[in-house]
Every structure is written in C-alpha cells, then in structure tokens.
C-alpha cells in the first residue's frame, strides 16, 4: 500500500498544498459553475471529524445585498482592529487588503452544529473543542480542492460573530467557523501576501519541531 499514489499524484497533492494562497484582491467576477462548487463542497464533507460527527453546514452566499451587509461589518471590525496596533504597524495594517467579500462571486460560511450527534461524542469526551477543529479540517480540505480546481479562497475573520450570525440567520446554538470568499482568480501569488507586504515571515520549520518533549520557551 506504500505506493498507491504515483509520484505524479503525490507531487500534485504537494503542489496544491504549497501553491494554495489566501486570496483577497485577485478575484475575477465570472461565476463558479455549480459542478465545481459541488466538488469542493464534497471535498470539505470528506474531512475527518471527531466521532464521525460531520458537524458542518455550508451556507453558500451569492446575494450582493447579503455580501454588502457582511462587508459593512468587516469595515467596522477592521477599523477596530487597526486601532489595536501601534504606529507603523497600524499604518501597514490599514494598507493591507484583508478580504474580497464583494468581488468574489461566492461567499461561503462553514458552521458547526455542536449538538449534531447528541451530548456524548466519541473523541470529544475530554477535549470539548474537537468538533470545532473538525470543521476547520473541512475548511482546509475545501481550500486545497479549490486550489486544484484553479479557484482562490480567502478566509475573512475580521467580523463580529453576532453580526455574521444575524446577516445569515444562523441560530444561536450554531457556531460560525469560517467565512470564505471563493472564485476564479487572475493569478495566485507565489508567496503569502503578509510576507511580501512586510507583515510577517514564514518561520523556519526546524525552530518548530521538538523531540520527545517541549524544547521551546516556557
Ligand atoms: C483561521 C484563519 C483566519 C484568517 C486567515 C487564515 C486563517 C487560517 N487569513 C489568511 C492568512 O492571513 C494567511 O493564511 C496567511 O497570511 C498565510 O498566507 P497564505 O494562506 O499561505 O497565502 C486571513 N486573511 C485575511 O486577509 N483576512 C482575514 O481575516 C484572515 N483570517
């Protein structure tokens, strides 16, 4: 079973991983065909989940009025966020493009129903956040599948959770996990934009890998 991926198939998977980008400013307006959207949603639905709970739902947003409402909340949240940084960081933050809500033809909210399979869930008994993490696995599956389909995805988390829930009619007990912008792109950047724009660099992997026990700062 070691080699059930051919070298070309393995390379294709790594290509998706290493060339996936968070997309904000490169969306094209042409619509995403339903069959392509369904394929990336199916990839998300095949993510691992604690106790096979599959706690996710996918709210597909294409209505410009709904997008505008969410964008208005982003504008409020990002002004608040800018004020949390000081000096040069604040002015750099304000120059960054951090969403493509209105430009992306599709927005997608991935949610978590924490009660989907009853109160006691195999694997969640001692680490209660595992259902939330399962939904993040679905996000990543979708992000990689989208990359292989030539579709860009951008995650927007500079939003007020209550405002997002209200705009999308999400009930109290459901947790919004990710608000994503999705669409065809003019191009994929080779390097994360936060790196090219001077916000932060990729850390060296060797600084992050420990052997047998925690070797970093306490
Ligand atoms: C949970 C979470 C939340 C967010 C993000 C990511 C994740 C995982 N990212 C994208 C993030 O900035 C990006 O992934 C990194 O900068 C690395 O770049 P690439 O994704 O490799 O292009 C992101 N980007 C952005 O412009 N606005 C945002 O609100 C967020 N929020």
TrEMBL record:
As recorded in UniProt, its EC number(s) are 1.13.11.79
Question: Can you supply a Gene Ontology BP term from the record?
Answer: cobalamin biosynthetic process
| Reaction(s) catalysed (UniProt annotation) | FMNH2 + O2 = dialurate + 5,6-dimethylbenzimidazole + D-erythrose 4-phosphate + H(+)
MF terms from GO for this chain are: 5,6-dimethylbenzimidazole synthase activity; nucleotide binding; oxidoreductase activity, acting on paired donors, with incorporation or reduction of molecular oxygen
Q: InterPro entries annotated for this entry? A: BluB (IPR012825), Nitroreductase (IPR029479), Nitroreductase-like (IPR000415), Nitroreductase/BluB (IPR050627)
Instruction: Kindly indicate whether the keyword Flavoprotein belongs to this entry.
Output: yes
Q: Where is the Nitroreductase domain?
A: 18-184
Q: Which CDD domains match?
A: BluB
Lineage: superkingdom: Bacteria
Assembly and interaction partners: Homooctamer.
PANTHER family, alphabetically?
IODOTYROSINE DEIODINASE 1, NADPH NITROREDUCTASE
Q: What's this protein's family per the entry?
A: Belongs to the BluB family.
What is the protein's given name?
5,6-dimethylbenzimidazole synthase
Q: What is the lineage of its organism?
A: Bacteria, Pseudomonadati, Pseudomonadota, Alphaproteobacteria, Rhodospirillales
The gene for this chain is bluB
């Amino acid at each position: 079973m070691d080699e059930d991926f051919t070298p070309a198939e393995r390379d294709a998977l790594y290509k998706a991983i290493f060339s996936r980008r968070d997309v904000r400013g490169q969306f094209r307006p042409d619509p995403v065909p339903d069959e392509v959207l369904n394929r990336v949603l199916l990839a998300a639905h095949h993510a691992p989940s604690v106790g096979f709970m599959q706690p996710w739902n996918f709210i597909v947003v294409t209505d410009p009025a709904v997008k505008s409402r969410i964008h208005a909340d982003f504008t409020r949240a990002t002004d608040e966020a800018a004020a949390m940084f000081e000096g040069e960081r604040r002015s750099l933050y304000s120059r960054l493009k951090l969403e493509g809500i209105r430009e992306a033809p599709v927005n997608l909210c991935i949610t978590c129903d924490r009660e989907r399979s009853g109160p006691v869930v195999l694997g969640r008994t001692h680490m209660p956040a595992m259902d939330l993490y399962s939904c993040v696995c679905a996000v990543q599956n979708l992000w990689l599948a989208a990359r292989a389909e030539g579709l860009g995805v951008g995650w927007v988390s500079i939003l007020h959770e209550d405002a997002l829930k209200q705009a999308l009619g999400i009930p109290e007990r459901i947790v919004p996990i990710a608000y994503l912008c999705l669409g065809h792109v003019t191009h994929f950047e080779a390097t994360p934009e936060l790196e090219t724009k001077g916000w932060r660099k990729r850390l060296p992997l060797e600084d992050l890998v420990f052997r047998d026990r925690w070797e970093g700062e306490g």
